[in-house]
Amino acid sequence: MEAGETELEMVRRHVRQGAEHVAKQRALVIRLRASGLPVEEAEALLGTFEDFQRQHEAHLAKAEGKAGQPG
After folding, report:
1. Domain contains 33
2. Residue 69: its pLDDT value, please?
């Protein structure tokens, strides 16, 4: 976690950053494909990023659920 950051803030940051990684990797796959270059490795990495993003989003849902519960 970054200094002064709560767990919930950290998870939200991870979701934002993950979305950026997924978008950049999708754009790369599109550029490679448009150039007629191999895309297999880029697509595999995109799949990995998408899997991580689903995990981050699930973690966020859980953390938000915890935050909404009475202490």
Report:
1. yes
2. 58
The type of residue at 5 is E
Planar angle of CA 64, 70, 71, nearest 5 degrees: 95
Token code pair at residue 25:
């990797």
User: pTM, whole model, 2 decimals?
Assistant: 0.83
20 assigned to some structural domain: yes
* Number of domains into which the chain is organized: 1
pLDDT in tens, 10-42: 999 999 999 999 999 999 999 999 999 999 999
Q: Which residues of 3-24 are buried (b: 16+ CB within 10 A; e: fewer)?
A: eeeeeeeebbebbeebeebeee
